[in-house]
Write a structure and sequence with these properties.
The protein is α+β, with helices and mostly antiparallel strands. The protein folds into two domains: about 200 residues, Chitinase A, domain 3, CATH 3.10.50; about 70 residues, no CATH class. It is built from four helices and twelve strands, in the order E-E-H-E-E-H-E-E-E-E-H-E-E-E-E-H. The strands form four sheets. The protein has a six-stranded antiparallel sheet. Strands 1-2 form a two-stranded antiparallel ribbon. Strand 5 and strand 6 form a beta hairpin. The longest helix is centred in the first third of the chain and has 18 residues. The radius of gyration is 22 Å and the shape is globular.
Length: about 290
């Protein structure tokens, strides 16, 4: 099974036996329902034994977030004391929902607006393993498409707000009062059994993120923002495919497969109301009969 970043294929138990003279470790593909319990134990221990420099976030300056291990008998708050929990369901091999807890801590919420889980964001971040090892770090912000990001990452970033910016005399842009957060999640919201650079299989992940700004995103340029192409109403535009052509609506310029581009069916009379010619409750851009 190859797990994509935003949809899941069936998972099977597979055991690869190693020869005695083979130093390659035995590799097991596990079920989400089993792995999430192991990850939960790892994450709770991590949350209870670590803290961050929360005292530094009483202002709007560009402060770096630092996660440290709590010393014995410390009176400082642990990450566990400060964390909020967001439960996200992941489909297992039988298409059953397996709840996964995303722990998030808002060091500074930000002063502006929140992105959706399908928007493009301008972020600086650091990714760590529970061992403390950093596997990725972007000191200077880069643009990322949340629709293509790890589920735990995009769900976490969508809890932050952007800040404000000003242009300096030399033409550079300076951001202030932007959102800063920590997002800690099990491997089922990350790479699960897959490996990535510096990340072993079944690794819970920790991200500290600064959200500078974002762009509302229309991936297929059909006139409908990707987040609003959520046809089944689950709050996510992923997997939604009105015409069954295996192209999600958020990437499909002709959502109903009638040969007319969605953008040309939205509002033909330019009255700012989405058209439903036959008044059947299905807008024309989703109705192959119109």
């Amino acid at each position: 099974m190859k797990k994509k970043l935003f949809f899941l294929l069936p998972v099977f138990f597979i055991f690869l036996q190693c020869k005695k003279d083979d130093d390659t470790p035995q590799y097991v593909i596990r079920e989400y329902s089993d792995q999430v319990l192991e990850d939960q134990s790892i994450l709770e221990e991590y949350l209870q034994t670590h803290t961050y420099n929360y005292e530094d976030f009483n202002n709007n300056s560009n402060i770096d977030l630092k996660i440290d291990k709590l010393s014995d008998n410390s009176s400082r708050l642990s990450l566990f004391d400060m964390a909020n929990v967001k439960t996200i369901n992941v489909k297992d091999s039988d298409e059953n929902d397996v709840p996964h807890n995303l722990y998030y801590i808002i060091a500074r919420e930000g002063s502006n607006t929140r992105p959706s889980i399908a928007d493009s964001v301008y972020v600086a971040y650091e990714g760590k393993l529970t061992s403390g090892e950093t596997f990725d770090k972007r000191k200077f912000p880069i643009w990322l498409d949340l629709a293509n990001a790890l589920e735990g990452f995009r769900e976490g970033v969508s809890e932050l707000r952007t800040g404000v910016y000003s242009e300096n005399s030399n033409g550079t842009i300076e951001y202030n009062s932007f959102g800063v957060g920590i997002f800690i999640f099990p491997s089922g919201l990350g790479y699960f059994e897959n490996t990535s650079a510096g990340i072993p299989e079944y690794s819970p992940l920790i991200f500290s993120v600064k959200l500078m700004t974002y762009n509302d995103t229309d991936h297929d340029n059909d006139g409908i923002l990707s987040i609003f192409e959520d046809i089944d109403g689950d709050g996510k535009p992923f997997r939604d495919d009105s015409d069954g052509d295996r192209i999600w609506n958020m990437y499909d310029a002709d959502d109903d497969g009638d040969g007319i581009l969605t953008i040309n069916e939205l509002d033909k009379n330019n009255d700012t109301i989405i058209d439903d010619t036959d008044n059947d409750g299905i807008p024309d851009y989703l109705d192959p009969n119109n």
